[in-house]
Amino acid sequence: MRPSGRELNQMRAVSIEPGFSKHAEGSCLIKVGDTHVLCNATIEDRVPPFIKGSGLGWVTAEYGMLPRATNTRMRREASAGKQGGRTVEIQRLIGRALRAGVDRVALGERQITIDCDVLQADGGTRCAAITGGWVALRLAVNRLMKAGMVTSDPLVDPVAAVSCGIYAGQPVLDLDYPEDSEAGVDGNFIMTGSGKLIEVQMSAEGSVFSRDQMNTLIDLAEKGVGELVGAQRAATA
Questions:
Q1: Which Pfam families match (predicted)?
Q2: Which pLDDT band, with edges at 50, 70 and 90, does 116 fall under?
């Protein structure tokens, strides 16, 4: 039934290549099917002004898509002089999601910026960015711990994200672009490795959904996130 031939509860193939970038404190190239995202983590001895002197650390993110990440060329946002609303919304989401798994006291008064660049898009780019962003963050924090710059691990739980939706009347896990573009219901589920929800973005795209259907989608998301967390742990072992 699915265009890809996958089962309703089947993820796309996932691969995570850690240490992809030479200069970043933490990095990975994550591939979720044909969606490929490069994630780099940068450690800085500064924090935003609103928490300066508090002793708390900060994790933030930036997100962007290369001009030919899709089947038609998109103009670089830098050439337009400003970021689009979708870009701003997604990078704020990535930052919020990753901070949910961080003990900011243990991190200390420093900032880690996660840069997520979509090299190729086929649905679920924000979810791949969050999942890969955590791997880059984990590797950067490992460097801090190895250098003795933090005394306890500030990452309390892995964070990963997956999309689910109602496609052709059926609940499906991990939407690719052909499904995402035609789904009656579309949702992004961000969860911790222990199964706690961080954020749910859920909307009807021409079709309403029931409480039972939403529960089914949450169950699918929990399965998918469990697989993604396994891939994260294998990449950072």
A1: RNase_PH (PF01138), RNase_PH_C (PF03725)
A2: very high
Query: Can you give the pLDDT at residue 78?
Result: 87
Question: Which positions make up the binding site?
Answer: 86, 124-126
Average pLDDT over residues 102-127: 98
What is the CATH code of the structural domain delimited by 14-235?
Answer: 3.30.230.70
Question: Starting from the edge strand earliest in sequence, which strands make up the sheet with 159-167, in order?
Answer: 170-173, 159-167, 185-192, 197-204
The total number of residues shown for the chain amounts to: 237
Q: What are phi and psi of 82, to 5 degrees?
A: -160, 160
Residue 102 DSSP one-character state? B
The residues spanned by each domain of the chain are: 14-235
Q: Does this model's pTM top 0.85?
A: yes
8 A C-beta contact, residue 20 and residue 41: no
- Tokens in use for 111? 């900032």
